[in-house]
Amino acid sequence: MKQKNIYRIVTAALSLQLGFAGTVLAQDLEEVKVKPSQEARYLAEKITGKVVSKSTGEALEGIGIAYKELSATFSNSQGGFELMVPSLSTSIEVNFGDALVKEIPLKGRTEITIELTDMELAMAGRNSVQLPYQVQPSHYITGAISSIDYAESPAQRANSPEALAQGAASGVNIIRRSGTPGIGADFFIRGLGSLNARTQPLVVVDGMIYDLNEYQGSIIDGYTSNPLAFIDVKDIDNITFIKDGGAIYGTKGANGVVLITTSRARDLTTRIDFHTYGGVNIKPKNLPVMEADEFRPYYSEMLGSAGLSTNQVIGNRYLNETPDTLGYYNYHNNTDWQDQVMRTSYDQNYFIKVSGGDNIARYALSLGHLKSSSIMDEEDFSRSSVRFNADFQVTEKLTAGTNMAFSYAVNNLHEYGYESAYISPLNLGLVKSPFLAPNIYSEEGLMSPNLADSDSLNISNPRSVVENMTAQNRRYRFFGAYNAKYQFNKHFSLKTLFGLTIDKNRETFFIPDLGVNEEVGTNAIIKNQIGGQVQRLFSTYSDTRFDYTNTFGYAHNFNLGLGFRYNKNRLQEDRGYSYNSGTDDLVTLGSGVITLNDAYANAGNWVWMSYYAAINYNYLNKYFLDVNMAVDGSSRFGKDTADGMSLFGHRFGLFPSVQAAWLLSSEDFMSGVNLDLLKLRLSYSQAGNDGIGNYRYLQTYSGSNVLASQGLVRADLANEQIQWETNTKLNAGIDLTTANKVFGISLDIYQNTISDLLTLQPLQAATGLNYYMANGGEMVNTGIDLGLTARVLDGDFKLTLGAQAGTYTNEVKQLPYDQRITSVAGGEVITTVGESAAVFYGYETEGVYSSSEEAGSAGLSTYLPDGSLAPFQAGDMIFKDQNGDKIIDDEDRTVIGNPNPDFYGGFNAHATYKRFTFDAAFTFSVGNEVYNYVRQQMESMSGYENQLQSVRNRWRNEGQQTDMPQLAYGDPRGNSRFSDRWIEDGSYLRLKTISINYALPVDGNIIKRIDIYVSGQNLFTLTKYLGYDPEFSYTSSVFGQGVDVGLTPQFTSVLLGLKIGL
Q1: Torsion over CA: 513, 519, 521, 523 (sign)
Q2: What pLDDT was estimated at residue 12?
Q3: 166-282+345-834+900-935+985-1049 adopts what CATH topology?
């Protein structure tokens, strides 16, 4: 397309955005006709100016300059412009394309030169922020908002939305669940949002609620469904985090709101973009476990501790050194089992997008395919997706749009975690004896292709688990939204949106007999296991909103929005388990022993409706006030809630918010201050949490199958007072940007008070239940968010730095009980008033008794497994006697760690030089403590499992000084009990991503751009943590934070990519 035609299109788009009432008929600027506004009589001051490139000094043509919707123009071929404004103390806006570039205070000037940097033009959308129902200039924002544009992000080589956003938004702690591809991350906005209700934020994609399936469980241990994995990150235009608001979303906004906007056609030019990359994934360094020559004497010592005589130990086949002994070659190896389950793997990704249109319709169609492999053998994630976004100008007053996406994803998985340790390849790779081999050996020492069975130490063969066990999750999602807007006149409009989500989630697993240790079931010895689950979600969503917008005089800008939302969901789950199919070749649910079969089904429906109002007001573009209100009802609430009001025979919650801002930089008294922006913000809001589960106001029953006999058992008691939790948020903030955006800072101080906490309240034994759910309790998060930006260099070599950080303190203020102790992975966390929620609760240690004399003089005892009291001996751990009764028992437990970080965040660098672009992004967490369950198992020295090399320093001799206790079969005196031995500093600094991009020179006729890049992810992590990876999240529940149960660690990846634009 010729330059003049492109210029015409840009002119038309700008005319629409800037509020021109006239119709663009001309071929160039001089022919643009503008219908004068009735408020034009207030435009008393005329300013003139010029727009130039700061780097070259050349005039810039076609740049939009405007004062609100009352006055607008474009720079001409010499960069010049004239504009009428009401006052020389106001501000004007500079626009390029359909995006705001900057806002400039006039400060009394009638002549002005506007200098635009290359970076400002390249990142034109940076100063516009996506909010619910509108896009606003950043200087209009009254709340605590963090916004991330894909085109600007140093992490744009990421393959998931959570990876794109991690470390890029202050106050948003994004914790990657594990290194399993596609598994996602947990989002914690400004601390912990609940004890037993939903803890994750509301996600809204293109104006429609995006269901995260938090209520859906998995039959594959260690796996969590991640619907965000359906979204190709290259389809994302912007991610915005609303941290202090959420009232507009009523009972869904308590934990913050994440707005994801997908890309659309920005102009009428037909564009084709192709993006592909390939990558290699490198496994992390192995944990230092004992080799065969180290494990053999350990094993011999453990046999003696178990009560075997010397002759029995010598005669053990694993220790017999005679080559002609039966099975010698099966028991005399030095296998690195971690290398047997982990390996180097490869990734590939393909993406193509076509966008364009005409004056009637604009469209964007994309297709993508991703295959991402794990460093765990036979573990990967693949996704195929298609997305279609379109906008239509149906009539002069009627517009319509659609957003449709379909994705199909497959996860090939393994089981992880403490409940599945016997079939977790990662765990087995650590504990399996190194003198055994994955394959069977003949008596002549020849290796057979047949895999070995589980050993006599009752430990499965890791290689057999990897090759023969299957665990797969297959998911489908259709996500479509359709909208229409009718503009009655310049003041009144009506917009409606209807959306549909269809999910199907199918899981299967098969645990074979060969190579896997037998499990003792309730009624039988389990040889093999088969499991299957199907979950179906059908969800409809509608949102209808009436808007009134007006400017009174030239000073008072007012917008009123009134709306109604409705969301209906239907979920069906079917789950079955089958056992002992007779052979590993029969892997279907119907092939097991019928009397052992187990089945589960669930069908649930829930409805949410919300009436809402939003008022946005500003005076002179200097004083801003936003007032929001939502009135929400839900089928999850009881009829006798303590809070709220009754409507239509149901209980509704009321959620208000008030947000205000003062743009000091536009004041006359600031005219001599060299600032682009100085703004103060203050907000108060209430938002609710309806993630309390379905049917808690009813007495419910669940099915039970015992020996092929079906029956019902009581599952829950009715509670007609059950209601939402309420998060009351207070926020004060300041935004400051120096002249030409050389330096910027955004600082917020907040306090979030969560009341009516959903808590477990005890029941009498006669009910047959231990507890029921009820509202009662209060928790507070108090903290600070900080964002910094700095343009360090702006010449040929350009360098911009940024940093985001957050800190919070969590405290439980009220509970309906004294304390709650929760067991997790062999440890415990306690929730009690005056402490953070779910802090680690165990024993304090003070070293190891070096001698019998020291142990005797201490005089401490503990209870043995048989209930008898026994004194500690030389070589035992020294536990602190908290209550002074000389007995180490439950009464001596105390708080020994806190999983909440002192502060967290990320920082980044963006640099350009000629055709090269360099990006780097770091993430960090400081002060969070971690329970290393893996190390607890690997240093317990209580059985025949392999251990870390650190146990070579165990106590063996009278008088030996060490911090490692003696080994003892069965650990009768509890040396490995949950204590501060297993609590570690989980702080880390990670180079999350680094990339170098080179733009090849092209003529621009057909090929507009060719980029080649190389990118590295997780290249290094600085930490004192002794496990594989200090970052993990086994669950989004507060009761499992900071617990390392042995998930796939994150790994280093190196990618080589190509982008072509036509």
Answers
A1: positive
A2: 37
A3: Maltoporin; Chain A (2.40.170)
